[in-house]
Amino acid sequence: MGAPVEGESLQIHSYKHDGHIHRVWEQTTVLKGTQSLVIGGNDRTVVTESDGRTWITREPAICYFHAEHWFNVIGMIREDGVYYYCNISSPFIFDGKALKYIDYDLDIKIFPDMTFNLLDEDEYERHRKEMQYPEVIDQILKYNVDKLIYWIRQRKGPFAPDFIDTWYERFLTYRR
User: Fold this and answer.
1) Could you say which of 7, 10, 24, 169 is the most buried, measured as most Cβ atoms within 10 Å of its Cβ?
2) What Gene Ontology molecular function terms does this protein carry (predicted)?
């Protein structure tokens, strides 16, 4: 499978459980790339939705993907602080060109004061039935919501106080 190379650009592909493409981020710079961990940075990158619509991200973001965790984390750097958007998802795979994962609908939005909201529970339940998520997947996903909330409260991993600033500085060195 290989690992993404630091300094290179990759696409991020999000799929749904039924195999359909959900969303594609055109360009993310690899800041750290191993077979088990990818940290990337992007700013004003084109995002293509499954219906073909496109939009451009509004602010710099640091992305955290792990091959053993059923979530990924995006730290968005705004004037009033860092906002996080966490996708409950499959662990990532890297196919040599793109980082890929399955998006399982549930999301957690975290504000600069580290308060958070669990989002899209209705969408998750609808897709769980429509796409027939196996019971074991349902259990894994719910366990990982709890794990993610623990990480948020403990300021662990990508939620550590200096994590986003450190990786954003690294991202800026590649942009020069």
Assistant:
1) 10
2) magnesium ion binding; nucleoside diphosphate phosphatase activity; ribonucleoside triphosphate phosphatase activity
